[in-house]
Amino acid sequence: MKVLITGANTGIGFATAEQLVKQGQHVILACRNTEKAKAAQNRLLALGQGKVDTVQLDLNSLDATAQAADEIADRYGSLDVLINNAGLFAKTKQFTQDGFEQQFGVNYLGHFLLTHKLIPTLEQAPKARIVHLASIAHWAGSIKPNKFRAEGFYNPLFYYGQSKLANLLFSNALAERLANSTITNNALHPGGVASDIYRELPKPVYEIMKLGLVPTSVPAKLITEMAIGDSWANRNGEYASAHMPDWKSSHAKNQQLAQDLYEESMNLVEKYL
Ligand SMILES: NC(=O)c1ccc[n+]([C@@H]2O[C@H](COP(=O)([O-])OP(=O)(O)OC[C@H]3O[C@@H](n4cnc5c(N)ncnc54)[C@H](OP(=O)(O)O)[C@@H]3O)[C@@H](O)[C@H]2O)c1
Question: Coiled-coil stretches, from where to where (predicted)?
């Protein structure tokens, strides 16, 4: 099976690629940094199983994301699984090339565009699955269209939470819209996982925090199951957690909010589709 993973050069994405390659799958690492992607590819090829390709994908730019999606569609023709994994936590206010707050832009809107551009390619597979990396941190966010471009005071946790809530609402909205198609959509919280995502935290804080974190292999196991396992073959619109409670906030359960965000996002990416 052909499985594309965004942000797969490190962390949870890399650990997932490793488990999939060990099961003989064809994994495509979609990464912003080509050198890091090649290094990850070499480590995976050394396992001597499966197949591993790389493709450049910078979710910080809608134009670059659209071009990457076109390249993927041309190169592969069909895809069995899309894992929307890439993400970042930004301690300070930063913007994407299109002027969106970076976490909203990279974690969510870039993936929204990528996914839509790849739906025709996913439809070429007999059955396809999309797995969205959300987070328990969605509880810290709500959807505020006037904050998509981060005007005013910047609270990093709110913005990370908004992006992860958007990932979960997107999974729910797509699950409903694609209910009669060959594609399923599910989301997960990977748990508190030791990875580079905490790179902006002060080192002593991270060292203490790390005591409660699980290794990347834990969420990778769940993601692999959601991506190719029999137990997830016919599941759609669900939210799972790798090692913490899978509780959804009231915003995350709000189907109207999911539809409103979907329509608003469609307007934001329309010219790149
Ligand atoms: N770790 C946790 O505790 C935790 C908890 C809940 C949810 N999550 C979610 O799990 C996912 C994976 O996180 P992780 O912990 O594995 O983090 P990570 O180790 O920092 O990996 C994140 C990946 O995203 C890539 N990325 C960042 N900006 C990008 C961009 N503009 N375009 C393309 N790729 C980009 C990174 O590339 P570079 O290496 O080039 O930076 C890296 O490959 C994220 O969506 C995160 O929100 C993580």
Answer: none
